[in-house]
Amino acid sequence: MECSFALTGNGYVLVASDTTAARSIVKMKTDEDKTKVLGPHLVMTYSGEPGDTVQFAEFVERNLRLHQIRHHQALRPQSAASWIRRALADSLRSRSPYAVNLLVGGFDTSVAAIREETEAVGGEPKLYWIDYLGTMAEVPFAAHGYGSYFALSLLDRYHNPQASLDEGIATLRRCIDEVSKRLIVAPSNYKVRVVDKDGVREVEL
Amino acid sequence: MARRYDSRTTIFSPDGHLYQIEYAMEAISHAGTVLGVLAKDGVVLAAEKKVTGKLLDLSAASTGGFGGSGEKIFMLNTNVVAGVAGLTADANSLVNYARQAAQQHLFRYNEDIPVEQLAQRLCDLKQGYTQYGGLRPFGVSLLYAGWDPHYQFQLYHSDPSGNYSGWKATCIGANNGTAQSLLKQEYKDDITMEDAIGLVMRTMSKTMDSTTLGSEKLEFATLTIDPKTKTPLAKIYRPAEVDALLKKHDLAKKDEDTEMKAA
Questions:
Q1: Which of A46, A188, B41, B186 has the fewest CB neighbours in a 10 Å radius?
Q2: Distance from the B77 Cα atom to the nearest Cα atom in chain A, whole angstroms
Q3: Residues near A13 by Cβ (< 8 Å), separated by ≥ 6?
Q4: B111 and A82 in contact by Cβ < 8 A?
Q5: Highest CATH level, class, for B21-50+69-249
Q6: Structure pTM?
């Protein structure tokens, strides 16, 4: 079953999504990337109705790219997440709504986001939990899918907003291991990305 | 010949001019002076009011709750104030458009519109009137004083052709040449708000025809960051505050250290 996790740390956001593509009871493939890099400092995981997910993720990707080309400036994570939420909320009230759940992780590098205490990390990590009903919340950690029933309590216990990247990865691995152990239909592989002041990159678990 | 290429805004003259646009810009250089100075911790705007007189009833002038007399300086959004020079009626229409654009941005992105983007929106509109026939262009230049998280404090100027540019200190309207050369001489990088207010006041008094400055001839506004909330704070001075500021500044001319804050 689809699972995605994300958590913030000291100067970074980690996002992870399983890589299973399933149809009915059949596992079709296990290397499907269900994350999207939306900008120099913005990344998103998506899950939900097959078809809707890719369509919506590409719609978001192209629109945010257009904004960046037009204004020589990427939207800040907060603004991008608000725009994505609005797109989902408008879609929900149309004839053909998208059924997509998202985790949007970003790093705000704008001058105003760099305060005295964050000077060294070069900005502020941001994480937004968005569901298919257009609910949005800014959170320190987040999860979607059946995995969230196991992961959220672990994150509640072990999440530390000041954790280093290695500690953050360890916490993420703890979540993934717990899901593998307890969930009947646990996914086998995950794609993990980190976004910090240097941009978005993939992380091997 | 003289009438052939200037009756329509959208037709080039053989030597490549759009005369109506140039006339509009000429009209602005007779309008009341508007002056802006960018400081390291804020932006200052001042404007000369041309419509004055003892019989003018200002008691019902709409201040919009922001202070000022609402003739030359307007709040476009929480993070942008603008000073206008040119046709007041055209300016009102543009101010209305700008406020709507700013609110649309807030609705879409849940953030205050970046200053340059707002200037761009207005310029897109203004440019349209240099290209689509049958209508006259906006006879308005604006100075935008604003703050956003990308570039912090900013000062922009836009003209009827739809061009815009960013400035450290600039001036539009009557005597803008004199004012600009004064500003060029006296402006220093990393100028403080207090010095910037002094610079604006001095330049304004030298630029304007009248010998004495008063709130009936002057509008004044500042944009700073609220020290408590860390959000932009636009302040358009009320007539009494402008008078207090002028008075204090005249006194402060000998003693620069005197606090120049309006009461």
A1: A188
A2: 17
A3: A6, A7, A43, A105, A106, A107, A125, A126, A127, A194, A195, A196
A4: yes
A5: alpha beta
A6: 0.89
**A53, A90, B107 from A60: Cα distances, Å:** 11, 13, 17
Alpha carbon distance B146, B77 (integer Å): 9
Residue A83 has its nearest CB partner, among B109, B117, B148, at: B109
Q: Single out the residue of B87, B42, B49, B85 nearest to residue B68, CA to CA.
A: B49
Dump pLDDT digits (tens) for B65-75: 566 667 899 99
Sign of the CA dihedral with B242 first, then B244, B247, and B251 last: negative
Answer yes or no: are the C-beta atoms of B140 and B160 closer than 8 Å: yes
Q: Which two tokens stand for residue A115?
A: 């305060």
Asked if A113 lies within 8 A of B149 by C-beta distance, the reply is yes
Residue of A nearest to B108 (CA): A83
Provide DSSP, A70-104.
HHTSPPPHHHHHHHHHHHHHHHHTSSS---EEEEE
C-alpha B49, offset from chain centre: 12
Report the alpha-carbon angle B199-B85-B188, nearest 5. 20
CB contact at 8 A, B242 and B204: no
CATH classification at residue A45? 3.60.20.10
What is the spatial distance between Cα A118 and Cα B56, in angstroms, rounded to a whole number?
54
Question: Residue B76 and residue B145: Cα distance in Å, rounded?
Answer: 10
For A185, the domain range is 4-203
User: B114: which chain A residues are within 8 Å (Cβ-Cβ)?
Assistant: 71, 73
How many alpha carbons fall within 13 Å on the CB side of residue A98?
27
Q: Backbone dihedral region of B70: left (phi > 0), alpha (psi from -120 to 50 degrees) or beta?
A: left
The answer to whether B10 contacts chain A (CB < 8 Å) is: no
Please tell me the total count of domains within chain A.
Answer: 1
Give the C-alpha separation, B144 to B39, whole Å: 14
Terminal C-alpha separation, chain B: 58
Residue type at position B212:
T
**Pick from A87-96, B18-27, B133-142, B202-211: least confident:** B202-211
pLDDT in tens, chain A (205 residues): 899 999 999 999 999 999 999 999 999 999 999 999 999 999 999 999 999 999 999 999 999 999 999 999 999 999 999 999 999 999 999 999 999 999 999 999 998 777 767 777 889 999 999 999 999 999 999 999 999 999 999 999 999 999 999 999 999 999 999 999 999 999 999 999 999 999 999 999 8
Question: 95-114 in A: which are within 8 Å (CB) of B?
Answer: 110-113
